[in-house]
Amino acid sequence: MRPDLDVELGFSTHLPPSRLPLVCCLVAFILTFFITRTIVRYIRSHADSDAPRKWWQPHNISGGGGLHIHHMVIGVILVMVSGISMVALAVDGGIPEFTAASILFGIGAALVLDEFALILHLSDVYWAEDGRTSVDAVFVAVAVAGLLILGFNPLSFFDVGIWQNDHSVAARTIVVVAAVLTLALAVIVLLKGKVWTGLVGMFITPLLFVGAIRLSRPHAPWARWRYTKRPRKMHRALERERWLRRPVVQAKLWLQDAIAGMPKFPDDALVDEQLDREIHAAPAPGNPEPVTQKAS
After folding, report:
1. Which of 32, 59, 86 finishes a domain?
2. Under a CB-based contact definition with an 8 Å cutoff, are residues 5 and 12 in contact?
3. What is the pLDDT of residues 168-182, one digit of tens each?
4. pLDDT tier at 213, thresholds 50, 70, 90
5. Phi and psi for 291 in degrees, rounded to 5?
6. Has residue 77 been placed in a domain?
7. Which residues span the membrane (predicted)?
């Protein structure tokens, strides 16, 4: 039996292996579009309902302070992750066309991430305090690319080569379980507000264990869920945050003065004032306003 079917119009249904990624991309694009539209319509149709939502029912994603996270933010993140992955996993880096495409992707990624705060807040916060999200996003992209260039790979703590060399169910189950546990640890670390520990920990896995065990940052979702009814733990988190943030704030204030042409080491009162503005306890669940609490 022939593997392909020739149609009278003159083309074959045979799919070359080189076209498979493009076909998968198209199918994923179409399915995601229709599923997203269905979910959004469901959320809109139930917007006026006072009935409590079950965990499996579609609902809007919200961040701290009631910030609504639109699905295009998830799309931008997925595009960036997949783009960097494809560049990093290129079979032959010497192909000129692929190198040129990689340069264009880098330019486009920089332009998008420079406005990431606008995408997140749907407001022109470029020069506002919330605009620092764009700078953070750029630093994250640079850090990930730098780790890949240095030869680090996500989930590198586990020998994923077992997947290729050993096709037994037991070996592959071990690899899958190890990867799932690593991702679960990364989620816990991110919920504790330790973005950089979670990011680097995906490449150096032992850091995830350290981040998952240590205290949460006081404003993070984990602190909101676990510390708001445990004042001693929240107080410890606040004190630890001030201790860790102090040298960072001192360096930032010194750099601001240096750029202004008057480099000087900031005094303690100015540093404490900045720390009071930046560090606060997470609000209790159901309370949208942050609870300001100064560690003494």
Report:
1. 59
2. yes
3. 777 778 777 887 888
4. very high
5. -90, 110
6. yes
7. 20-40, 69-91, 103-122, 137-157, 169-190, 196-216
